[in-house]
Amino acid sequence: MGNLFYVDSASRTLTMVAPGQLATWWPEMSAHIPGATPEGIAPYAGTEADLTVPAGLGSQDMRRLINASLHRLHLDHDTLSVHAVALEHPDTREAVLLLGGHGSGKSLTAVALTLRGWRVLAGDVALLDIAPSGSTPRVRGGTSAFVVRRAPVRRWFPQLGVGADGPDKFDLSGCAHSVGGNGAVMPKRVGAAAVVDVDGDPAVNHGYLQRVAAHTAATVWLRACAHLLDRVLEESDTVLREVEDVAAARHRTGLVRALARTVPVSAIWGSPAGVADQVERLATQRS
After folding, report:
1. Which of 55, 71, 123, 129 qualifies as a cystine partner to 228, CB 3.0-4.6 A?
2. Terminus-to-terminus CA distance in the chain, angstroms?
3. What residue ranges do the domains of the chain occupy?
4. Phi then psi for 134, rounded to 5 degrees?
């Protein structure tokens, strides 16, 4: 029998039965859980829980299981958990979402924008409140960790002074005042979204922008908001997709359609600075 806990994610509570190690792992784990804070865990005095964590899971699998359960919790409140870096424009205070798979250059583009005064709201997964009525979606929080690869950051941003020694991936949120937060933010209107692709050719300085067709954009959003479910556990045969039944999947698809109608998606490629230039133009056009 594990311990009873509740965790807070952007002012919503998930209750669980979990091994006592969760409390020890939580301060570091919380940076990779959308809407969570290092202080957002406490003993739970109830008798029923939303989630029972199997015994024997390590911290990584426990985090994946918690995130999948939070996906469903937020979905029940019309909130999508989207694989995206979310940033706040320094003047308009609206949010822009950077979409793309691992290695596409979302974080490099975000670094370029923070050097221009933008602030990172979510480093990897953003929580988006969606109104089916069609009003503008809002970022309500996200993951506070902002993980980057050492070599590309050193290559494109030597002014940051990142050393050559250390792990390949590291959290930049502790190295820049404009990066990171506590996982929860005051709701920010979403002004624009872009699928980014950073070209590794240093000769490609300019950014190129193209509007994504509506149906393709909806598919991009659909895949991005399945991110927390499309994970394989290393120490369990649990299938995370099973937290979302048919009714929940249909509800998520409906929210995606509403999101696609209100926030058009553009595709941008080029160097980090060139992509950042185009993102700023998108944000200016919306303001």
Report:
1. 71
2. 54
3. 3-75, 80-286
4. 105, 5
